[in-house]
Amino acid sequence: MTAAVRCDGVVQIYKTRDLEIVALRDVDLVIAQGETVALLGPSGAGKSTLMWLMAGLLRPSAGRLRINGTDVSRLSPGALDRMRAADIGVVLQNPGRNLIPYATAAQNVAFAQRAARTDRRRAAALLDRVGLGGMRRRAGAMSGGEQQRLAVAVALANAPRLLLADEPTSQLDDDSGRAVIGLIEQAAEENGTTVVVVTHDAAVSRALGRTITIRDGKVGAEGRHGEEFVVVGREGGVQLPPEFHELLPPGSMARVEALPDGVALRRAES
Amino acid sequence: MSARSRGLTLRGLWERRGLSLAVLVVTVVSVATSALGPIFAEAAGTALVRGVLNQAAPEGRGWRITARDADVSPLADRFRSGAAFLGTPVNGAELPGRDPRGGVVRPVIYQDDVCAHLVLVKGRCPANGGEVIASQASRLDAGKVVRVAGLAVAPAPGEVIAARAELAPLRVVGVYRPRDINDPYWFGGNLFAQTAGSSESKADPLFTVEETRRATQATVQWTHWSIVSIDPTKITAADLPRLEELTAAAPRLGLAQAPVITLSRVPDTMLEVRAQTGTLGVPALLVIAQLVALGWLLLYLTVSDLVAARAPEIALARLRGQGRLRVWRFALAEPVLLLALALAAGLALGMRLAQVVAAALLPGQVALALPPAGVLAGAAVPLGGLVAAVIAARGMAVRPVTEEWRRTPRRRARGWVIDAIVLSLTALGLVELLAAGVITQTSGQTSAALAVPGLLALGVALLACRVVPFLAGRLFRASRRAGGIGAFLALRQIARGRATAGSLIVLCTAFGMAVFATAAWDVTSANFERVARVHNGAAGVLELRAGSVAELRAAVEAADPGGRHAAPVIVMPGPPKMIATDPARFAHVADWAAARPGTDAARLTAGLAGPPGTPRLMVRGERIRLRIGPVKVPDKWEPTLFADFRVPGSTLVKSIPLGPIGPATMEWGLPPECRAATCELRALRAEVTVLDEVTTNASMFADVKRIEVRTGGRWREIDAGLTDRARWSGTASAGEDGLSLMIPLFGGAKAVPATFPRHLPALVNGPIDGELTPGLDQNFAAGHAVLGERAPLPGLSEPGAIVDLELADRAALGIAPEARFEVWVAAGRLEQVAAALKAQGHPVSPARTPDQLVSRYTTQGPGLALALMLAAALAAGALALGRAVLALYGAARRRGYELAALAATGAKPGELRAALLLEQLITLAAGTLNGAGAGLLAARVALPRVPEFATAPSTPPLLYEPSLGPVALVAGAALVVAFAAVALTAEALLRGIRADRLRQAQP
């Protein structure tokens, strides 16, 4: 089965006027169809960059990124637009940013459908699902929770195969946050949509099937079923989770001891 | 665009109503002011054309197409087809009939609608063949039957025309007199000699109807004509190319059956039309081009703001995968809709403004039309906005969409390419301008020079928007160490440069243009007034119909016995021009303040009269007699004596021969003119005829002892001062023995009464060819002695001289018909002097005043263009100010989050207010003052080369120093309005800054 997202040694470099910043370095990652993934990590680790790459808004500086089996590096801008319109839904961090503030809920969903196929029935059903059916107010006049629910509806307007959400609950109260997470889970369950959520919210990460922690532009760890694993990188490197830094502080030397099912790191006394 | 998209676009416009309104207002006003130029120029061109045509004689505004025995009306119809400005042709024909008895020519004429152009004294208009109307002067009463040779009774069908056919009877059914012989209807015909009092060879015509021609047999040929006239009320400037074609085609008109003669002086009129309308071209192009450019700049920035405000939505469209075309359409929908609406509204406003300006400035009623150039100029402005929208939209459609959501947007350095292009063009224009004289043609060769004011303002603006942030950056570093947070924040914001650059550019450019226009208007108005005052000469000038210098003097002395309010002036047209006047009166009355400010006029004119003149030798009678002393005539000489006279009604000397010199008495009849009026003896001349070859070169003397004139049969001696040395000059000397003429063999001898100096004392305003003034007789015989420096003088509109009236009269042989008799009147005395002259029975024409001249200059091409430029540039300045305040407000509003954060960390409202006020004040003041400086610089460089007059006056020299008052007023008013706007917007912004805003998302 084709993976929904496959990253092979993805590198992303931003160029500013004076210097280059490596946002992602040799990211290897596979997300299966229908999987729900939380991207975790400290601010500036590269989570949003990875999400924008998955959304086809950026092209990787190096490496290969496949979305639903398609190498995005080889797509023309038009093909990327079409892919984003048909297969990818995006929820941005700030609820207001996802919406045209002077348009109604229905107009916002319709605006998102412009690029694919206008489906008023689906738009109405989505708005009903997010509890905004019949809402006549302009989006700018809605509460933060309503705006974020509407943003999810807009992201799902074209029944995407991949739903990307950046901090969807960061500016919401608990109830609104739960409602939004519920909507995302529902989309995944009902339509088999692959979900990738960038979040700092533990509740969100718990609600999703898998966690991927990005540190210093690399996949540092993965969590499945409540258990956290470090990930051995392309060159054999691993990132120790911060809770082990006390035992092996950054810069300390360690001995690697082979074990039958792996290796052990022991601090080398100087 | 679907209804849903349209709805969304309209909602978006409402959402950004402030910016939308700004774009709408800027576009409407820019379109209106840009379209105003061509609309007004077209109307002004029409007014100029109509003015020239109205002043032209009938032959200057029409064609008379004639042919013998051939109807030319179809030719005239073809000629005028498609030219709505040509009136309906007046067709007619004339038979040169003769009175059968006396042989006097008595034309028989029919002409369309003739009775409308005559006064019917008796009877009715002819309606049938054989009926005529006769002139009152012809004494042919109604009911009478007349016959004219050349018009015979028509032969019956089949009858052979008799050699001496019976003349056709013409029954007089009415009596007319001409209504107006100068009516263009009569163009080309000299018809009413009998009415004018001359009936020796030609009688007034008999007017009839065309049926008369058909009902009779002509034995001489009918001459047919068609008069095609230009209707000045219908012609417009747009018709000029067609009129040029017709002018060129008229001489080539022809008929197969007869030669055609076309009489017209329209080509002369066209020369004048071209000269007048040509003066409008350069300034109008200058104004229109720069206003369009300014409109572009304003719109570029305002529309860029509008598109930038839509950046999040455009990013959203791209995020949702909308294709490029759809994103472009989405991005451009709002600005394009606004620009389209504004174009229509702007053109309508431009038409309305043009109507107002035309009503105020143009003579007569000119119906305004929207010319293609007006539409183009108007449409060129929104094109600037469209370009801005496309560039801004392209930026948003092409740049990575994620840039929109970055916490700290990447800064991009401003390039130098555009700046370098503008500065290079400015330098090129300056070089062209400084190398050229007055710009008089609109070819591409001087296009850069024409654009210098605008380019200079833009160049200074570009430099200012780099220098001001740089200086702010320097001061910002200092303000970090000292001073409050207010100055620190303000200078830091300016040093960032992004928010201030656009405002600085637009303010500096617009105010540069506004100040240039104000300075241009100020300088031009001052020159108009100065030139008008100098050319008019006095506060009021009345023209008088006087026959002589004495009559003029008497009229003025009676009207102003005190001698301080009126002066007699005779003007001889030039060049060189000559003004002859009473110096004492002239010193009081003439406008010296305009011509030579600060001069002591009385002292200056005191020398004009020269030393007291000797008596003139005035004679009146039938004969003149000279008593001559004994004369020894050399062998083979035959000397003859002549007397030269100045006679009334002529400007030529009248000589009479007094006979061979020898006898003691010489007598001859005076010229006939001297019998009824006084003549003046101007010289005694002797010429020698040699009877055979002579070898000696001797000379002889003749002593004139006495001069007598016979009047009414009695001889009377005249006081000729024959013994007074001071009273005669030339090759003669007065002494005890009388006036002794030394007569050489060759060259003759001439004794001239010394009644005036050889060189008339004169005030002169510049170099004069040959240093000869025309004299009252236009004989250019009088030289002049220049008093004082050569500088402008009242009343001299070209190089010329002012001389004493009495001396000019003595020097002249008469008064030429070209002489204008005028009474110059001091300020405030016009009505009094005019009333006094009328009371003496002098018909007084309306006074000529400097205001009339100023009005004429103002309505000429350059004056109209400058008025247009001032109005439009001030409007653009106001727009620029509004746009700058709006942009600064918008920039500060976007920083509301930052200000709220500062407030939360303890910054006092007063400090934040000071920061906002200082930032905006520095930006607005820098833009306004730099603009004012650029405008003044442009004025200094460009004004001497921009035409101000349709025909540049040769005197007085024009001044180009603008007075600082109006310029300071414009800049000051702009600053006051800017400061008020800044204070209001800063206060409004500060009210919205609260710490709880930090809970909201950063915009």
TrEMBL record, chain A:
It comes from the Bacteria. Keywords: ATP-binding, Nucleotide-binding. Coiled coil: none annotated. The keyword Ubl conjugation does not apply. One of its GO terms (molecular function) is ATP binding. InterPro entries: AAA+_ATPase, ABC_transporter-like_ATP-bd, ABC_transporter-like_CS, ABC_transpr_LolD-like, P-loop_NTPase. One of its GO terms (cellular component) is plasma membrane. Residues 5-241 form the ABC transporter domain. This is ABC transporter ATP-binding protein. It comes from Spongiactinospora gelatinilytica. The lineage of its organism: Bacteria, Bacillati, Actinomycetota, Actinomycetes, Streptosporangiales.
From TrEMBL, chain B:
GO terms for cellular component: plasma membrane. Its main location: membrane. It is found in: Cell membrane. The keyword Cell membrane applies. InterPro entries: ABC3_permease_C, Macrolide_Exporter_MacB. Keywords: Cell membrane, Membrane, Transmembrane, Transmembrane helix. It is a multi-pass membrane protein. It holds the Pfam family FtsX. One of its GO terms (molecular function) is transmembrane transporter activity. The keyword Transcription regulation does not apply. The chain crosses the membrane at residues 284-309, 330-353, 373-395, 416-439, 451-472, 501-521, 864-889, 921-943, 963-990. Residues 885-986 form the ABC3 transporter permease C-terminal domain. Signal peptide: none annotated. Belongs to the ABC-4 integral membrane protein family. This is ABC3 transporter permease C-terminal domain-containing protein.
